[in-house]
Amino acid sequence: MSRTIALREIKGRSRGYWLGLGGLALLAGSAVAATFYIEHNGLHVTGMNNQIAWGMPHVISIFLILAGAGAFNVAAFSAVFGRTVHAPLARLSGLLAAALLFGGLSVVMLDLGGPQRLLVAMSNFNFKSTLASNILRYIGFLIAVTAFLWTLMEPRMNRYSRGAGVVAMLLGLSVSTGIGLVFGFLVAREAYDSAVMAPMFVAMSSSFGLAVFILVLAGACSWTGRPLGGFIVGRLRNLLGIFAAVVLYFTTVQHLAGLYATEHHGVERFILMEGGVHTFLFWAGQVMVGGILPLFLVYSPSARKSRRALLAAAAMVIIGGLSQLYVIIIGGQAYPLVLFPGMEVSSSFFDGAVNPYTPTLPETVLSLGGAAIAFLIVAVAMKFLRFLPETLADAALDPHYRPPSED
Amino acid sequence: MNGQPMDKVRRKVLACAAATAGLVLAPGVTLLAAQGADSKKRWGLLIDASKCAKDCEVCVVACRDENGWSGHQRPATDPQWIRKVNLRDPATGFTWSLPVMCQHCTSPPCVDVCPTGASFKRADGIVLVDKHICIGCRYCMMACPYKGRSFVHEKITNQKPYAPRGMGTVESCTMCVHRIDAGGVPACVEACASQGGGAIISGDLNDPSGDIAREAAKYGVGRIRSDLGLEPGVLYRGAPL
Predict the structure, then answer these.
(1) Angle at CA A268, nearest 5°, toward A263 and A271?
(2) In CA terms, which of A47, A104, A113, B77 is 20 to 30 Å from A146?
(3) How far apart are CA A7 and CA A98, in angstroms?
């Protein structure tokens, strides 16, 4: 690095900033209102029921938490692995990690009906439960990331930033692993019950987190007029390509394993061929939009040099990620539980039937409120604290940078 | 100190502290003295599918009336503690009908996954939900292989004192624990014996001279998804397991 890059608050005085902030606050407030509406009228006003117990709030909250854990990777590259090129981005990476995690947890809290239930969860622990241990992981990660940011921002604490970074990185890894195990340990359901869930969720976390990071960084630099050079963009582009490819690899392994075992043929046929919206979201959303197209945009020589192609790739990874979580969470419940293998089954409780799910407006607003809370935190924090580098121009970052010759 | 020597004041303070501690601890001592579930027993059910008629639902009706879980004509969200499942072998066309409810597993996945410990197994094998600390996360519903659990979607009124329920909590068959603790049998067993085919019997699975042990030794019984190794306390006879 040719020189130390200063970090500075954003001005946050423009009309666009305040409009954005107002929009996010409105959405967050609507989420709280949606919770009251659901609690007042009864939980049947959501699309969730006794067959699809986890719905849209779970898709969005898990996406946000995974993205939060993954967004810390950029900070980890600089603080833990000493990649100085990522150093100016470490603060934004930490901020995004904490904000996304907080947004995801807000959705969980709103879905449960209020903060009082989190208090019960925090005062009654069943340590064999993955959900319970995940609560500890989330809290630990939030504390570690906050401590890491403090070590970066307080000059006297700078020497501890590597240690804090290591702890936060390990806890982030533990968060995404823990979420994967929430599903991997469910032996009852054909679509889950697989150890591959843990590493796949780690890869998903890295991919989703980096995609959100790229979009936030590009947006913030563009709106505040700060230079964002091709050098750092190229690094992030390569990293996104690797993460997207790894997610695609684990997805392939997950389904190959299902296709090999005869007992899982039914659920594989459902997801891959006959599952309606789930099959569409798998092939069109998860594989094509979330995997193949981003890889093309990242690695094809024609799109490689385009900044817009990278932003499109990042947006596609997010769409693909939401599709993937929808297929895993909703699709896994839509496929009926097999109580009597080989038998045709029916009952008034929908045994043997494919379970439909249509998210309603209140639960969708409740879910999106989590994302609004996350970005509200990011926007406000960047206005009052120094999270964003003044410049990310090649001249400031690339050690081999040479100004273009004039002849 | 009103002229009292210091020792007397100390004694009074100590006496007050002891009395307060006694008042606080007394209810706990009483609780400890109360009789809990008997770990020597393992309550369970035996369901004979060959005696269960396809169109008979007296067990379901009896459970609903006993525990007060009637719905709101919304099948997807209405709770069902017990349901009749109809089976057909596609190879032969043979059909069965049998009730399915919480299977009261020896190793219940709902208890393992519950973050707060609200799902718990009594010493005598009955699996219950503590509604006070159920946070409504529904992870137990994701984990149960038997679709044994329901989520309460609406506000509850007129609930039975022995079967507490609440919106935003999960519930399931309690094996009519209030009846069992009083020396009786579950409502489904009673109704099936009097109005149905006498397909359900209840008893202590650990009692070698009990009805269930005798039937099991004579005819052979099975458990739903025994491959999962959860050892349910609900046994089936004459069902394709």
Answers:
(1) 150
(2) A113
(3) 19
